[in-house]
Amino acid sequence: MKLSILDQAPVSSGYSAKDALEATIELAIFADKLGYTRYWVAEHHDLNGLASPAPDILLGIIGSQTESIRIGSGAVLLPNYKPFNIAERYHVLATLYPDRVDIGLGRAPGGSAEVSIALVGNFLEQVKKMPELLDELQHFLHRDFPPEHLFSNVSAAPVPVIAPVPWLLGTSKKSAILAAEKGMPYVFGHFMSDQDGPSIVKTYCDNLKQGEPKVIVTVSVICAETTEEAEEIALSNLHWRVQQNKGEGKDGVPSIKEAHHYIFNDDEAAIIEKMKKKQIIGNPTEVKAKLEELQAAYQTDEMMIVTITHDYEARRKSYQLIAEAFDLENR
């Protein structure tokens, strides 16, 4: 099984956005040494607690300080942009870091309605154009517009020797079918969806019009030396999710101590139990077994792990323990 990382650049309470971004860069360097396949950075806008509105800027730094790990967005929220602009940005990265660049693409707004207006104006109109936006971007990446097209002589320079690889991200059958129709590899957000993920991935595979299906499944994982320690570390993230549901948590991921001092009501306790069912929390042996179980359910050979903890060292250790459990360095 291949293992990859999705980093949302979380800001922890008591830390700054600068601390979070530096932790992201340091984790990417560490992941490269551990043998992870990809390191993708998410895009969010005006969300307190997440520090990455511009993945390509971070990827430029990460690429310069790593050697072999593939780098990419998870995801570029395409309705916010003109495809030509995205092609240019990721062509720069692919020129600097040949055969290492992915473009994960999504259609979510990544922030509030006001943020969408500030970014692009009528976001819903842009979402409706998602199939056309994907076509246009792929034409720019591969320089294959029809001769009669307005952009047939437009080049998203610099043009890399090896084009970045576009992936479509989603959590529904609609996104799976769109990826299949466009002949694109697909990433399913297991950690974000309440739907039947394996069925959605099968829909993608059954409807793919060209090429072999390529699927990554993204899952939330927290690993520690013992099960008890993992559950303790996970508590701060779960508490933060409860806060976010209430419009709170603006100081970032709370500490374990803060989480212990919070008294959850019955509804919040039920929400936490539901969230825990979507997460993998445990010691290395347990985490390995659960990841392999999930891999078998989805019939894919690559899992992408997102880990949010208050303590950045605990996050680093979690990824290290998982890498050691799967012996990634010796593959």
TrEMBL record:
<dbReference type="InterPro" id="IPR011251">
    <property type="entry name" value="Luciferase-like_dom"/>
</dbReference>
<feature type="domain" description="Luciferase-like">
    <location>
        <begin position="1"/>
        <end position="297"/>
    </location>
</feature>
<dbReference type="GO" id="GO:0005829">
    <property type="term" value="C:cytosol"/>
</dbReference>
<comment type="similarity">
    <text>To bacterial alkanal monooxygenase alpha and beta chains.</text>
</comment>
<dbReference type="InterPro" id="IPR050766">
    <property type="entry name" value="Bact_Lucif_Oxidored"/>
</dbReference>
<protein>
    <submittedName>
        <fullName>LLM class flavin-dependent oxidoreductase</fullName>
    </submittedName>
</protein>
<dbReference type="Pfam" id="PF00296">
    <property type="entry name" value="Bac_luciferase"/>
</dbReference>
<dbReference type="InterPro" id="IPR019949">
    <property type="entry name" value="CmoO-like"/>
</dbReference>
<dbReference type="GO" id="GO:0016705">
    <property type="term" value="F:oxidoreductase activity, acting on paired donors, with incorporation or reduction of molecular oxygen"/>
</dbReference>
<dbReference type="InterPro" id="IPR036661">
    <property type="entry name" value="Luciferase-like_sf"/>
</dbReference>
